[in-house]
Amino acid sequence: MALSWSSRRQTLYYAVAAVVVIILALVAWKVFFTHTPNCFDGVQNGTELGIDCGGACALVCPDDARAPIVLWARAFETASSTYTAAAYIQNQNTDAGARQAKYSFQLFDDQNILVAEHDGVMDLPPVRTIPVIDPNINVGNRTVARALFSFSELPSWYTVGSGDIVPLRVVEGNPAADWSRLPVTIVNDSIDDAHDVTVDAVLFDAGGVARAASKSILKSVAHKSSQDVVFTWPGGVAGIVKAEVVVLPSF
């Protein structure tokens, strides 16, 4: 039995309405129940190896990140009642760095009694050996016998690409005979300016023991240029056979 024109028109309306409802339902489902995977949605999706980490995400997953190793920590008397604390940290995460890592130096006397504690925050660049140097720690009339360095919390590591860091090199000058002065030149051969560059210098004796340390912070090193830095230790440092100068770039 053939449908009347009014019945066919009503059926057509119903069909169009059904299609519209289906389309709206699909849009609502996509908006409210699905989204493009990203590294900040609190869900493991896309190429992620964990929740918002690994794969395409810069954050290194906690199970894949390796804790930094403290190679040594020492304190050096630089003036009456004043010490410089220094430590060497080994970054075991290849091509990864950590920002705003919280750390603490604790200084003890020969009775193992705490003399001073100094907290700090620093970025850990993708450099194998990272010096941490904190000058001007006041200890009053106490004498420091040893130092302890530790991280207040485990750093979060992020993958750092080679293009994220401006490469710099160090040219060492001739130190003073008593190691009271060490000139170096920081060279930027790249086409990019380097900003907030930390330059650390540590002096070692024949036994490989650190005897003094100092740091300098350069606001910038322009592209295709160089900048001189002079480290000084008034009065000199006895028994020094070598200096290690490390550039810590920003990233």
Task: Describe this entry's structure for a reader.
The protein has one helix and 13 strands; from the N terminus they run αβββββββββββββ. The chain folds into two domains: 99 residues, Immunoglobulin-like, CATH 2.60.40; 87 residues, Immunoglobulin-like. The mean pLDDT is 91. The chain starts with a helix and ends with a strand. The chain has 251 residues and is mainly beta. The strands form four sheets. Strands 3, 4, 6 and 7 form a four-stranded antiparallel beta sheet that branches. A three-stranded antiparallel beta sheet has the order 1-2-5, with no helix packed on it. Strands 8-9-12 form a three-stranded antiparallel beta sheet, with no helix packed on it. Helices cover 12% and strands 46% of the residues.
Radius of gyration: 29 Å
β-strand number: 13
Helix content: 10-25%
Structural class determined from secondary elements: mainly beta
Q: What is the ordering of alpha helices and beta strands?
A: HEEEEEEEEEEEEE
Shape: elongated
Number of helices: 1
Low-pLDDT residue spans: none
